[in-house]
Write a structure and sequence with these properties.
Length: 115
């Protein structure tokens, strides 16, 4: 049995995805991130409330500056993930310029081994 999303039954595991999204490296990249950050957090609030985002945060460089994002999330399909990316402010405002998406099998969640 996988982690359940809203409306899913025990027989329908929800696919997990691991995303690495890298910001641009140009001089304006930090300003774009800062400008889009409020809308980004507003957009993910409902996903957090529904339990679709298990963990997410900024990737930092050696100086502690944000240079990207790492995300562990549930989506019903890769197509649903792509719909989210199409409306995500960090994509629309050209913050994330390289995004790696991988299916992910969750082994540990909240300190517990998952089946």
């Amino acid at each position: 049995m996988g982690i359940m999303g809203s409306g899913m039954t025990k027989e329908e595991p929800v696919p997990h995805f691991f995303l690495l999204a890298y910001d641009g490296t140009d001089a304006d990249a930090p300003a774009r991130r800062k400008s889009a950050r409020g809308a980004h957090f507003e957009g993910i609030k409902p996903m957090v409330e529904r339990g679709e985002l298990h963990a997410a945060g900024a990737i930092l460089n050696d100086s502690g500056e944000m240079i990207g994002s790492a995300i562990f999330a549930d989506f019903p399909s890769r197509a649903a993930l792509d719909v989210w990316l199409d409306r995500e402010p960090f994509v629309k405002q050209n913050v994330w310029q390289k995004i790696e998406v991988n299916p992910f099998r969750l082994a540990i969640l909240d300190g517990k081994i998952t089946p």
